[in-house]
Amino acid sequence: MAADRRIVIENCAIATVDANDTEYTSGHVVVTGNRIESLGAGPAPEGLENVARRIDASGHLVTPGLINTHHHFYQWITRGLATDHNLFDWLVALYPVWARIDEPMVRAAAQGSLAMMARGGVTTAMDHHYVFPRGSGDLSGAIISAARDMGVRFTLARGSMDRGEKDGGLPPDFAVETLEDALAATEDTVRQHHDSTFDAMTQVAVAPCSPFSVSTELMRDGAQLARRLGVRLHTHGSETVEEEKFCHELFGMGPTDYFESTGWLGEDVWMAHCVHMNDSDIAAFARTRTGVAHCPSSNARLAAGIARVPDLLAAGVPVGLGVDGTASNESGELHTELRNALLINRLGAHKERALNARQALRLGTYGGAQVLGRAAETGSLEPGKLADLVLWRMDTLAHASIADPVTALVFGAAAPVTASFVNGRQIVEDGRLLTVDEDAIARSTRDEAQRLARIAAQA
Ligand SMILES: [Zn+2]
Question: What residues does the Amidohydrolase-related domain cover (predicted)?
Fold first, then answer.
């Protein structure tokens, strides 16, 4: 068997985001096959064999690829609606539209969501998909194949809802599944698609939508199912005051206690939002190593509040970043979340010391890998880890006058992506996707958004 070919990247600033936050002002990275072979200061070692490509990355910052930990791809075709609503009003306005999605719509929306993230430096994506209307086709298969075609590493959080309108929930009854169907379909998806190997490109998590759209049985049985199958657990938690009130009325306790009572705290769990957490909630997350997907833009868009990220980090809670669905964050880019995590947390209790640029970059890389359970494989640049990395161009108008590249990346405008590698394979060049036709995706997402709007208007 021929030796793996090498790619040598040189003359770039490097932020490794390793445990010591090691950085190089001018260094090199050597990629062999799908792994990082070596990196360090100065040029690459001389005499390397099988060098297929040598990249002069002068003027660039190299970082680990960005990792998104919370999203709803299908919402790509319902962006810009219900723009002045809080969470519950927004859900009530949008569920009747979402309940009409079908496989071609979900495929186009997944392509749109993935393309937007990948061209902006995301190398690991996730989709929490929980709307499975009766007869809508193989939605999980469509989403997974879209991620495979794009070439990004991917976790599908197979969602579910079994609390429709007749049971006091918000979604229409035909858009929810029965408890039995939800569990069986989730198990099926795990068995068909989950890969537990080190370089897995596709993983599956068990992900009932939220306490207010799911029965207690589905929460409890879902947790048991995930542990039986050895996969991770994901849901929404403590997003709004209304949700907190709902939990107290229905279950006689707050969201974190409810999660604990149903088996939903643990190092194999990560939860989106976690905005309304008191000190004992944070201590429970820290004690159990439960992870958090912080979604600052979506929380602002829906006026949900500011998550206590500095307190979560100080307590030792693993925290990653999420764009959330693009019906509540129309940008759909993770750079926005790096920047907003830093800025929005400074509006909270900790003021100017809330988060710095390096902590924000860590949330969007290593923190994301932690909450997805993949910190051994990706999330930092270290020898032996997977070659998921981004070359950000820092010598153009937007950033050239900022001396520190990490500050430029986080505080500045979204930096142009000269190249993005996933698993050692280049998927972006000069801001364009190499794996798919971006313009064709733009057209199909517009067509499917219009088709969905027509169907929803006729219903
Ligand atoms: Zn969400």
Answer: 61-425
